[in-house]
Every structure is written in structure tokens, then in C-alpha cells.
Amino acid sequence: MIGAAKAFLKRRWPRLRLRVILFAVLFFAAAMPGLSAIFLRVYENTLVRQTEAELVAQGAAIAAAAAVAWPGAPPPVVVDTREEGRYAPEPSTIDLQASPLLPERPAPAPSGPPDAAAVQTAARLEPMIDQTVRTTLASVVLLDARGVIAQGGGSLADLAEVRSALAGDPRTVLRRVGDYRPRYSLEWLSRASGLRLHHARPIEVGGRVVGVVLLSRSPRALFRGIYEDRGKIAIGVVGIAALLVVLAGLVSRGVTRPIEELSAASRQVAAGGVQTLETPTTAAVEIQSLYEDFRAMSAAIERRSAYLRDFAASVSHEFKTPLAGISGAVELLQDHGEEMSPQERSRFLGNIAADSARLSQLVTRLLDLARADMARPEAGLSTDVAGAVQRAADAMHAGGFRVATQIQPGLPPVAVPAATLEAVVGVLLQNSRQAGAKQVSLALRTRAAGVLIEAADDGPGVSAADAARLFEPFFTTRRAEGGTGLGLSIARSLLAANGGTIELVASEAGARFVITLPAAA
After folding, report:
1. Helix (H) or strand (E) holding 172
2. 81-130, pLDDT tens digit by residue?
């Protein structure tokens, strides 16, 4: 099942760039302190609003009881609970960030005696208020219609919340606590630690405000609330840890593991092995491109290694024959030189000279091939192709061998050195003459991105078997005449170094080659 899940994820995995992966990880790491602070502020604000809701509920219950117990109040009317619009919960009005912070509640101002009805109602509700205070720990004060405290006198009519309640609108405010002292070392993190909520609620009898219920209470402590909600917070911590695991897996799948696999493959290639490395679908886009480049490099190294092995074998074979001839002739001259006639000695010395000349020619052509393989394109080249080809053609006019040129007017300059053009055309003309051709036609014309040269002779042509190996190093059909089989290999390498190509194309008579040259920038 795990394997099926991995296969499904590989098929569905999005192509992510390395910068996206790193940005996601770093952004999450940078946002963690901010997220924690936001969580604490939101959670603390929730605790304050919860305290406000409790004060509203308690105040509503006491105000309703006072309205019923108020002297001279009409008997309560039983209403239909199915009445539309009857239920209207009060929304929260307190926000730690937006609500104004008022000073500590002042002491009651001197006043006359409270209203007798308010005093009587306070006495009737005192047992109920005492029971609720024991449970909620809220302070409850009953005021008459003038804002005077019913339980002992003193006016609180100047308070903003009391004025609002006397006008018929309940109101909750935040006030400082003057004698507040921190009890915990981390209590400075809490903005609500030194605050107290004050809620004033009107007592209405017969459609008019006859008194006010004033309640106050400190909000739930932040750290106590965290302790009480530790289970929910633990779930959040586990969720964050799970997200960190996912991000770690993202980095591992997208960056770390692919790089480790690529490193192991590189060591294997360095040790001489052949590596077929598959691109991981979960890797970052840049690393997937790196895998493609690695495969291309590995294939190029393998081709180059194979080329070097075959080249070394061919060089060994080509050098073995003349060296064997020289060694044999020298041995015969050393053992039987005095017994030989002058003509025999001259013949063996001639064989040694011929084999030495062939070795010298092989060394020269090998140096030419090495230079061609190591050649690199030159910047800013601009060569007149017609002039270079014409010079190579004029150099071959001899002994009944003719070269005809057809040059299209207005040919663009090419990004190939003139020496390279003359050498390549010279190789083709020399091969045609050695194959028995009497005439070669050179046609120059423009093509989409440069110049095309077509060389066609009237010789015997190239057989299908030989055509497949024509550009291989040391392949020649004229070994007896001194051919090295390196001319076309050198020509192809010289052209490839400058972005050009040469190839043999089908022809009804003779041999036909096509050279393509890139136009100069």
C-alpha cells in the first residue's frame, strides 16, 4: 500500500522550483514567531470576549430578577415563545486592539440617599446575588435611576457605562486595575492582565429605566486559559510539527535525496561505470534539469571513451604494419647484410624508407586530427566563402583534372575560417582525383541559415558498404596507395568546431557530398 501511495504521489507531484521550496521553508520558519504572537493575541481576545459574554448573561439574569422584584412592578406577562424576532443575542463589543482603555473606576461620589424601591429590591436580591458572586467571582452593584448605589450610597452616575445604561443601552468597557501586581514571570506577554471588564445593564419596569445593574470582573488569565485548553493547543502543536515534517520531506524529496543520488552516480561514472539515472519526479525543476545535463554528460563521456578505445586500437593497427616491416628489414640487414647483393640491400632500405614515410605521414595526420578535435569556434568570423572555395579549386587544376564552380551571386559571409574551407574542399577534391574522377562540380548557394556547398564528381562513386564507414578514422580503400583514412575525419571535425556539417548523399553517378556552413553574425 505504501508503494502504491508513493507511485500515486510521483504521478501527481507538481513541478516545483528550488527557490519555491526554499522560500516555503524559510517563510514558514520566519513566520513562526509572528504566528505564535498572533495566536496568543487572538486567544487572549477570545478569553476577554468570553468573560464579556458571561457578564452579559449574569447581568441579564439579575436585571430581569430585579425588574420582577421591583416594588410596584406589574405582574410578569407570559408571552408566546414562538413569537418571531423574540430572540436577539447581544454581540460582543470588546476588542483588546480596538476598544478604548479607560482609567480605573473611581470611588463613588458623595450623594443623597438611594431610592427606597432600589434599596428594597437590592435587599430582596441579595441572597441570589451572593450565590452568583460565589460562582462567577464578579462584583455586582445595584444602582437606582440616579446612579446611586442601593447597597450603601454613593453616586457612580458619571461613569460612561452607567450613563449609557441609564439611557437604556447596556454597555461593556475596559478599565485599568490600579492595584494590579504581576504574579507570573511571563505575565508581561498578556495585555489583559491588568484590565477589568465593567458591564452596566438597565433595569426596566413598565417601559422606563428604574435602575442599573453594574458588574465587573477580571478576564480569564491567559496562561490559566492555556493550561485549561492544553488539549486543543496540543493538537495545534502536533499540527505544526506535522507541517514541519511535511516541509522536511519536501526538502528531502525535492533537494537532498536527488543530490545524494546524483553524487553517487557521479562517483560511479568517475570509477568507469555506466550510469542510467532516472529523473525523480519529486525533485525541484532545477535539479531535474541537472539530471538531464548529467545524463547528456555521461552519454558524451561514454561516446568519447568508446571513440578513444576504438581510436587507440586503430592507431595500434595502423602503426603495427610499417613498424613490423621496418623491424623485419632491419633484422635481415643485421643478420645477412654482408651476404646480400647491393640490389637486395637497396630494396630493403627502400622498404624501410617507405614505411618510415608512412609513419611520418600518419603522425602528421594524427596531429591534424587532434587539432581539429580540439578546435573551438572563433568569435567575430566573417569569411568570403566564394574566394576560399575558388582558391582550393584553382590549386587542384593539374594533369587533366578539372574543377567547375557555380557560385550564386550575393552569398553571405560565413562563420568558418578560410583555412578550414580550403582544407575541407581540398580533401574532397584530392579524394575524387585519387578515386579516378576527371572532373568535380562545386555548386555554392544560400540556404536558410548560411551557405551550402555541393561537390559532385564523375568517378566510380562510393559503395553502400563503404558509405557507412566513410567518416571513420583510418578507414580507406587506398591503403596500398598510401591513404591514411583520416582526411574526411579531419574535415568533419574542422567543420563541427565551427557549427558546420559534411555528409555523403545519394547520387546516380560518382560521389556527391554536401557541406553546410553557418552564416556570420
Report:
1. strand 171-176
2. 566 666 677 888 888 778 888 888 889 999 888 998 999 999 999 998 88
What the chain holds in terms of domains, given with CATH numbers, is 11-72+93-179+187-228 (3.30.450.20), 285-362 (1.10.287), 376-518 (3.30.565.10)
φ, ψ of residue 177 in degrees (nearest 5) = -110, 115
Residues 6+ apart with CB under 8 A from 374: none
Three-point CA angle 173, 176, 178, nearest 5°? 145
Cell of residue 223, nine digits:
496562561
Return d(Cα 282, Cα 293) in angstroms, integer.
17
Q: How many CB atoms lie within 10 A of CB 482?
A: 12
Q: Are the CB atoms for 362 and 420 separated by under 8 Å?
A: no
| Residue among 254, 294, 303, 256 nearest 275 (CA) | 294
Type and span of the H or E element at 209: strand 208-217
71 by Cβ neighbours in 10 Å (0-12 / 13-18 / 19+) ranks as: middle
pTM over 0.90? The answer is no
Specify the pairing of strand 439-447 against strand 402-407. Answer: parallel
Q: Which residues partner with 442 through β-bridges?
A: 405, 455
The span from the first CA to the last CA of the chain, in angstroms, equals: 59
Task: Please write down the long-range contacts of 476-480, taking CB distance under 8 Å and 24 or more positions apart.
Answer: 478/434, 478/435
In which residue ranges of the chain is pLDDT below 50? none
